[in-house]
Amino acid sequence: MADFNKIIYTRRSVRKFKDQKIELEKVEKLLKAALLAPSGKRIYPCEFIVVDDKEILNKLSQAKAHGAKLIEDAPLAIVIVADTATYDVWVEDASIASTYIMLEAENLNLGCCWVQMHLRGTEDGKTAAENMKATLKLESKHDILSVLAIGYKDEEKSVYTDDDLNYRKLHRNFLNNTLEFDY
Questions:
Q1: Which residues contact 174 (CB under 8 A, 6 or more apart)?
Q2: What are the backbone angles phi and psi of residue 130, rounded to the nearest 5°?
Q3: Which domain holds residue 163?
Q4: Who contacts 170 (Cβ-Cβ below 8 Å, separation ≥6)?
Protein backbone atom coordinates (compact mmCIF):
# COMPACT_ATOMS: atom_id res chain seq x y z
CA MET A 1 0.00 0.00 0.00
CA ALA A 2 1.21 3.49 -0.83
CA ASP A 3 2.31 5.87 1.89
CA PHE A 4 -0.51 8.43 2.12
CA ASN A 5 1.74 11.15 3.56
CA LYS A 6 4.11 10.74 0.62
CA ILE A 7 1.19 11.11 -1.80
CA ILE A 8 -0.18 14.29 -0.22
CA TYR A 9 3.26 15.90 0.07
CA THR A 10 4.22 15.12 -3.54
CA ARG A 11 0.86 15.78 -5.26
CA ARG A 12 1.04 19.03 -7.19
CA SER A 13 -1.08 20.38 -10.03
CA VAL A 14 0.58 19.38 -13.27
CA ARG A 15 -0.26 21.32 -16.42
CA LYS A 16 2.26 19.84 -18.87
CA PHE A 17 1.96 16.27 -20.03
CA LYS A 18 4.02 13.92 -22.15
CA ASP A 19 2.49 12.73 -25.39
CA GLN A 20 2.03 9.25 -23.96
CA LYS A 21 -1.14 7.22 -23.67
CA ILE A 22 -2.18 6.09 -20.19
CA GLU A 23 -2.46 2.34 -19.80
CA LEU A 24 -5.97 0.92 -19.45
CA GLU A 25 -5.10 -0.62 -16.06
CA LYS A 26 -4.25 2.84 -14.70
CA VAL A 27 -7.43 4.38 -16.12
CA GLU A 28 -9.40 1.61 -14.42
CA LYS A 29 -7.72 2.37 -11.08
CA LEU A 30 -8.54 6.07 -11.44
CA LEU A 31 -12.19 5.23 -12.06
CA LYS A 32 -12.37 2.76 -9.18
CA ALA A 33 -11.03 5.51 -6.91
CA ALA A 34 -13.88 7.74 -8.10
CA LEU A 35 -16.45 5.05 -7.40
CA LEU A 36 -15.03 4.48 -3.91
CA ALA A 37 -15.49 8.12 -2.90
CA PRO A 38 -18.09 8.61 -0.19
CA SER A 39 -21.43 10.23 -0.91
CA GLY A 40 -23.91 11.84 1.44
CA LYS A 41 -26.83 9.53 2.22
CA ARG A 42 -25.24 7.02 -0.20
CA ILE A 43 -26.98 8.78 -3.09
CA TYR A 44 -23.97 8.87 -5.46
CA PRO A 45 -25.15 11.54 -7.93
CA CYS A 46 -21.84 11.60 -9.83
CA GLU A 47 -21.03 10.24 -13.27
CA PHE A 48 -17.53 10.11 -14.76
CA ILE A 49 -16.84 10.64 -18.45
CA VAL A 50 -13.43 9.47 -19.66
CA VAL A 51 -12.27 11.52 -22.63
CA ASP A 52 -9.30 10.51 -24.76
CA ASP A 53 -10.51 11.80 -28.13
CA LYS A 54 -8.32 14.76 -29.17
CA GLU A 55 -11.21 16.61 -30.81
CA ILE A 56 -13.33 16.39 -27.66
CA LEU A 57 -10.36 17.35 -25.46
CA ASN A 58 -9.94 20.42 -27.65
CA LYS A 59 -13.61 21.37 -27.21
CA LEU A 60 -13.36 20.91 -23.43
CA SER A 61 -10.33 23.20 -23.39
CA GLN A 62 -12.53 25.99 -24.80
CA ALA A 63 -15.52 25.50 -22.47
CA LYS A 64 -14.58 28.44 -20.26
CA ALA A 65 -12.81 31.73 -20.78
CA HIS A 66 -9.62 31.06 -18.80
CA GLY A 67 -7.61 28.21 -17.34
CA ALA A 68 -8.76 25.25 -19.45
CA LYS A 69 -6.23 25.34 -22.31
CA LEU A 70 -4.12 22.61 -20.67
CA ILE A 71 -6.87 20.04 -21.29
CA GLU A 72 -6.10 20.16 -25.00
CA ASP A 73 -2.61 18.69 -24.46
CA ALA A 74 -3.58 16.06 -21.90
CA PRO A 75 -3.82 12.50 -23.18
CA LEU A 76 -6.83 11.92 -20.92
CA ALA A 77 -9.48 13.86 -19.07
CA ILE A 78 -12.14 12.75 -16.66
CA VAL A 79 -15.21 14.96 -16.58
CA ILE A 80 -16.97 14.95 -13.21
CA VAL A 81 -20.70 15.22 -13.88
CA ALA A 82 -23.58 15.08 -11.42
CA ASP A 83 -27.32 14.69 -11.59
CA THR A 84 -28.30 17.91 -9.83
CA ALA A 85 -31.93 16.81 -9.52
CA THR A 86 -30.90 13.82 -7.41
CA TYR A 87 -29.10 15.55 -4.58
CA ASP A 88 -28.70 19.11 -3.29
CA VAL A 89 -25.09 18.67 -2.16
CA TRP A 90 -23.80 17.21 -5.41
CA VAL A 91 -20.93 19.73 -5.47
CA GLU A 92 -19.53 18.27 -2.26
CA ASP A 93 -19.86 14.69 -3.49
CA ALA A 94 -18.29 15.57 -6.84
CA SER A 95 -15.45 17.40 -5.06
CA ILE A 96 -14.64 14.37 -2.95
CA ALA A 97 -14.69 12.09 -6.00
CA SER A 98 -12.43 14.52 -7.89
CA THR A 99 -9.98 14.53 -4.99
CA TYR A 100 -9.93 10.72 -4.84
CA ILE A 101 -9.05 10.62 -8.54
CA MET A 102 -6.31 13.22 -8.09
CA LEU A 103 -4.75 11.30 -5.20
CA GLU A 104 -4.89 8.03 -7.14
CA ALA A 105 -3.26 9.76 -10.12
CA GLU A 106 -0.34 10.75 -7.89
CA ASN A 107 -0.21 7.24 -6.50
CA LEU A 108 0.15 5.98 -10.10
CA ASN A 109 2.88 8.56 -10.86
CA LEU A 110 0.57 10.48 -13.16
CA GLY A 111 0.15 14.22 -13.26
CA CYS A 112 -3.28 15.73 -12.78
CA CYS A 113 -4.83 19.17 -12.72
CA TRP A 114 -8.33 20.10 -11.58
CA VAL A 115 -9.96 22.47 -14.05
CA GLN A 116 -12.91 24.15 -12.37
CA MET A 117 -16.03 24.25 -14.55
CA HIS A 118 -18.86 24.82 -12.06
CA LEU A 119 -19.79 28.53 -11.93
CA ARG A 120 -17.42 29.25 -14.82
CA GLY A 121 -18.11 30.11 -18.43
CA THR A 122 -17.31 32.23 -21.44
CA GLU A 123 -17.61 35.94 -22.14
CA ASP A 124 -20.87 35.38 -24.03
CA GLY A 125 -22.56 34.45 -20.73
CA LYS A 126 -22.77 30.71 -21.39
CA THR A 127 -21.72 28.41 -18.59
CA ALA A 128 -18.98 25.85 -19.08
CA ALA A 129 -21.60 23.12 -18.68
CA GLU A 130 -23.74 24.68 -21.41
CA ASN A 131 -20.69 24.80 -23.65
CA MET A 132 -20.01 21.09 -23.06
CA LYS A 133 -23.54 19.63 -22.92
CA ALA A 134 -23.91 18.84 -26.62
CA THR A 135 -20.38 17.48 -26.97
CA LEU A 136 -20.79 15.17 -23.96
CA LYS A 137 -24.48 14.42 -24.63
CA LEU A 138 -25.55 15.57 -21.19
CA GLU A 139 -29.15 15.90 -20.09
CA SER A 140 -30.58 19.13 -18.69
CA LYS A 141 -30.43 17.75 -15.13
CA HIS A 142 -26.64 17.39 -15.34
CA ASP A 143 -24.02 19.89 -14.29
CA ILE A 144 -20.24 19.67 -14.39
CA LEU A 145 -18.02 20.34 -11.42
CA SER A 146 -14.61 19.84 -12.96
CA VAL A 147 -12.51 18.34 -15.68
CA LEU A 148 -9.43 16.52 -14.47
CA ALA A 149 -6.63 16.66 -17.03
CA ILE A 150 -4.41 13.60 -16.54
CA GLY A 151 -1.20 12.33 -18.09
CA TYR A 152 2.42 11.48 -17.55
CA LYS A 153 4.18 14.48 -16.04
CA ASP A 154 6.28 16.62 -18.35
CA GLU A 155 7.32 19.07 -15.66
CA GLU A 156 9.04 18.74 -12.31
CA LYS A 157 7.63 20.36 -9.21
CA SER A 158 9.11 20.47 -5.74
CA VAL A 159 7.70 18.33 -2.98
CA TYR A 160 5.93 20.09 -0.14
CA THR A 161 7.62 20.16 3.25
CA ASP A 162 6.33 21.06 6.69
CA ASP A 163 7.83 24.52 6.15
CA ASP A 164 5.22 25.07 3.40
CA LEU A 165 2.32 24.51 5.79
CA ASN A 166 0.41 27.56 7.02
CA TYR A 167 -0.06 26.68 10.68
CA ARG A 168 -1.88 29.99 11.26
CA LYS A 169 -4.92 28.31 9.69
CA LEU A 170 -5.16 25.90 12.64
CA HIS A 171 -7.26 26.82 15.68
CA ARG A 172 -8.32 25.09 18.87
CA ASN A 173 -11.93 25.20 20.06
CA PHE A 174 -12.64 28.56 18.39
CA LEU A 175 -11.25 30.86 15.70
CA ASN A 176 -8.09 32.81 16.52
CA ASN A 177 -7.16 30.48 19.36
CA THR A 178 -3.81 29.15 18.19
CA LEU A 179 -3.53 25.40 18.07
CA GLU A 180 -0.37 24.08 19.68
CA PHE A 181 0.66 20.49 19.19
CA ASP A 182 1.00 19.85 22.92
CA TYR A 183 -1.61 17.17 23.54
A1: none
A2: -60, -40
A3: 4-169
A4: 178, 179
| Other C-beta atoms lying within 10 Å of the C-beta of residue 48 | 17
User: HEC string of 7-20?
Assistant: HHHHCCECCCECCC
Residues with Cβ within 8 Å of residue 94, at least 6 apart in sequence? 45, 46, 80, 81, 82, 145, 146
Shortest CA distance to 145 belongs to which of 183, 175, 114, 108? Answer: 114
Q: Does a structural domain hold residue 177?
A: no
**Domain tally, the chain:** 1
pTM of the model: 0.94
Please tell me the distance from the alpha carbon of residue 169 to that of residue 183, in angstroms, as a whole number: 18
pLDDT tens across 57-74, in order? 999 999 999 999 999 999
Is 124 a domain residue? yes
Radius of gyration of the chain measured on its C-alpha atoms:
18
Residues (pLDDT < 70) of the chain are: 1, 182-183
User: Terminal CA-to-CA distance of the chain, rounded, Å?
Assistant: 29
Mapped onto helix, strand or coil, the DSSP state of residue 94 is: helix
Please report whether residue 175 resides in a domain: no
Residue 151 lies in a domain: yes
